[in-house]
């Protein structure tokens, strides 16, 4: 059995013409899938024999809502989805003044090992298929009834560690007969996998690249992010330069503020020095407390921001949403895996 929702429209069309069907059937099936159909029986403009033939060869992914939490503070919605094989992943729906953003996972778990992050505590279970990334958008949209204007690949997992599937997902989400999501409305966040950044740069896509920097110097970064031992922060900055040169797109540097680790004035000065001349901006994130982690949120966010700005670097502080619903970074999945969740 093959996962039909991970196939591009032209692959579906080829498969159907091989079965002796007219080419326009491909477009129809693709549209049904992107509309969130969960069975071939729903595809009422296909003949019954064709629906039966398709059901013999293909399956249609459809995650089940294992848990849904709505923030009383700001309406942020967090979904815990159960996949076909029982693995669970998270998706967050956030409303901003410029529209609704859905934050999706790219892997079940993560193997990058960032020391402050809940997603990586139990390692990686598996990569997500393109269909499973698309489903997070399709079913969030269907369940919530709101239109999605932006997609961010900032949920559980490292997109660059599953780049083939991520690129295929982007192609699916971008297709005019489907979600039709413009690349400029998609962001991809990486912990700094240099070959992935270069591969993406080569493609020249107009999406926004976010780099989870979290420290301007090698010693601090290696302490909190093991990926820095494979791709040093200096190489990472070089890759960011190459990315900008190739794509002309500004990079967003994520910086989670950790008490006594990366929040000194000296680190702000070094950060400013490193990114001066690089078209990009710094997004300061108040650290989310993760029970498993030894790190605590910094109390110097505003001071750090001021210091950066005194050097002419633009820095914003990310508004924290869903603070009452574990809306960040694998926290709900962790609780579910451990049976820690109440009710
Ligand atoms: N693997 C990718 C995308 C997923 S993480 C990446 O590393 O970019 C999404 C963002 O949340 C990253 O910037 C990550 O470093 C950050 N993050 C993880 N744990 C956090 C925590 N406890 N508090 C604040 N931000 C956190």
What hetero molecules are in the model? S-adenosyl-L-homocysteine
Structural category: alpha/beta
Along the chain, the helix and strand elements come as EHHHEEEEEEEHEHEHEHHHEHEHEH
- The stretches of 5 or more residues where confidence is low (pLDDT under 50) are none
- Kindly state the number of beta strands: 14
| CATH architectural arrangement of the largest domain | Alpha-Beta Barrel
Major sheet size, sense and barrel closure: 10 strands, mixed
Given the C-alpha coordinates, what overall shape results?
A: globular
Protein described:
With 343 residues, the chain is of the alpha/beta class. It has two domains: 2-59, DNA polymerase, domain 1; 64-342, Aldolase class I (TIM Barrel, Alpha-Beta Barrel), CATH 3.20.20.70. Helix content is 36%, strand content 20%. The protein has twelve helices and 14 strands. It has helices spanning 9-18, 24-34, 48-57, 130-144, 163-174, 194-203, 218-224, 227-230, 233-247, 265-275, 301-310, 331-338, and strands at 2-3, 58-59, 64-70, 77-82, 88-96, 99-103, 107-109, 124-127, 150-153, 186-190, 208-212, 251-257, 280-286, 315-317. The strands form three sheets. A ten-stranded mixed β-sheet has the order 3-4-5-6-9-10-11-12-13-14, with helices on one face. A two-stranded parallel sheet has the order 1-2. Helix 4 crosses helix 5 (163-174), helix 6 runs parallel beside helix 9 (233-247) and helix 10 (265-275) crosses helix 11. The longest helix is centred in the middle third of the chain and has 15 residues, at 130-144. The radius of gyration is 21 Å and the shape is globular. The protein starts with a strand and ends in a 5-residue tail after the last helix. The model has no long low-confidence stretch (mean pLDDT 94). Residues 112, 114, 116-117, 154, 158, 189-191, 212, 254, 256, 285, 287-288, 290, 329 line the site of S-adenosyl-L-homocysteine.
